[in-house]
Amino acid sequence: MTETDLNCEIIPVPKIVGSSRIGLIVPSSNTTMETELPELFRLQSETTGHRYTFHSARASLKNVNREELLAMVGKAGDCAVAVSDADVDVIAYACLVAVMAQGAGAHEGSEAAIAAAAAGNGHPAAVTSSAGALVRTLVELGARRVAIVTPYMKPLTRMVSDYIEGAGITVIDSVSLEVDDNLAVGCLDPQNLPAIARGLKREGADAIVLSACVQMPSLAAVQQVEDELGIPVVTAATATAYEIFKALGHRPAVAGAGSLLSGTYPRD
């Protein structure tokens, strides 16, 4: 082994100027977050020229039930260590319901644990979670009353509603598509969402949560539903993207994905 080889092993490779690394912790059966988020950041890159790369760690989850969700939570620290090996700038814990299954406000502890694990591995990074991002974004938007769409069985949807209400936001209506196989959730057609959204009881609603699940595809419908209903439309994915932008200090400039990512927020 040459001296050059040794130096390559012990000297960190500098990050590319004009590029950010985003780490994701996702369920093993997730097929959506690693498509919708890169698409959102690709659109951002078209506007700003800044590049984003994605680096994932996976935790086992096949069926969306309380037992498997809680088991996944126990693996978050190991996943954080693994993804931080890529020296990412921000880590997003991209399984909303796994965090919410732990009870009100659980995102705060989950995010702190992931941040500690990454820092302990020598690669500190900003941390967000889909659960935390969703409730914090709704609060920032001033949304006091929302209607939500989930792919979950009704008991899990009730749990998600309770979690959101624990942040001081009233859920005035919800739709449960009752799909418990996570791969099947990723195959749901987002083109069905506009009709579902029209059926929501939304009188007095300040926002629509079109997909309270990072696995349920929704990006293709967000702008259409927002334009049609005339109120902000967010999803677990767009809220997570919004917080990633904030963590990086980048103002969103994404067209066609709802007002949240258009640059309207935060208001100056």
From TrEMBL:
Where in the sequence is the signal peptide annotated? Answer: none
Q: Which reaction does it catalyse?
A: maleate = fumarate
Keyword check for Isomerase, yes or no. Answer: yes
Provide the alphabetized UniProt keywords. Isomerase
Modified residues annotated as S-(2-succinyl)cysteine in this record: 95
Q: Which residues bind substrate?
A: 30, 95-97, 152, 182, 214-215
Q: Where is the active site?
A: 95, 213
Which domain of life does this protein belong to? Answer: Bacteria
**A molecular-function term among this protein's GO annotations:** isomerase activity
Q: Which InterPro entries match?
A: Iso_Racemase_Enz_sf, MaiA/AMDase, Maleate_isomerase, Peripla_BP_I
Q: What Enzyme Commission number(s) appear in the record?
A: 5.2.1.1
Instruction: Quote the HAMAP family the UniProt record gives.
Output: Maleate_isomerase (MF_00943)
Q: What else is known?
A: Reaction is initiated by nucleophilic attack of cysteine at the double bond, yielding a covalent succinylcysteine-like intermediate.
Role description? Catalyzes cis-trans isomerization of the C2-C3 double bond in maleate to yield fumarate.
* Assembly and binders: Homodimer.
Q: Which family does it belong to?
A: Belongs to the maleate isomerase family.
* Name of the featured protein: Maleate isomerase
What is this organism's lineage?
Bacteria, Bacillati, Actinomycetota, Actinomycetes, Micrococcales
Gene name tied to this protein: maiA
